[in-house]
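Q: Recombinase family protein, please. Structure only.
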Amino acid sequence: MKIGYARVSTRDQKSDLQVDALKAAGCERVYQDVASGAKTARPALDELLAQLRADDVLVIWKLDRMGRSLKHLVELVGSLMERKVGLLSLNDPIDTTSAQGRLVFNLFASLAEFERELIRERTQAGLTAARARGRVGGRPKGLTPQAEATALAADTLYRERKLSVAAIAQKLHVSKSTLYSYLRHRGVEIGPYKKPAQGQPGPSTSAGEVDPPKVATIRLTLRIESMHELLGDISSEADDRNCFSESDARMDGTDRYW
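A: Structure for Recombinase family protein:
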């Protein structure tokens, strides 16, 4: 059975030309997505791939309608071939149901592998040249002058104990996680926020007002899409409960960390 897939980048664009061509090619069903070429989420394509069975043929208008990149296209078509599902592009010389089409696809796969090797070699050459000049990679140390000024303001406001962390972050136009980073940079001891009673001195003038923070260390192994959003949610939840959360994350096998 032939199943078609059409995609346009914006809602202002029309997929009528693609749909008409796919139906003329004998597609019994046509799935459609509205998504940019680089966007990962394509619900209709995901549903289509789940419905495909052996000996089915996936028909597309052009190769760029399905793959986000050459690498993604090669991986996707390779998965289809393993499932014995054919791919037919109406405007490209690709038809994996024929020997000639499979040959062309294998050439594309070789080009994708060549591209990856070139990128890897250029990256390594750049790192080697940087090291030869005495440059070391990694996160730059310290703060910019503008960030230093914001950190100083955060230090002053936090020590006054008149505003909550959320209020200080809003006043300085930074996130709470960034605010905590600035405070740690300034060497500020972070404890739970307590609003002083009317007519009584705040915690900054009386050491007994601030309880010693309770610390719990938790190590999690997660598979997530947005690390910044997760750490922000953790910090927000901790602040709502008058707690302080210090979180960092590192991707195994790489130098990436948050």
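A: Brief note, in case it's useful. The chain has two domains: 2-111, 145-240.
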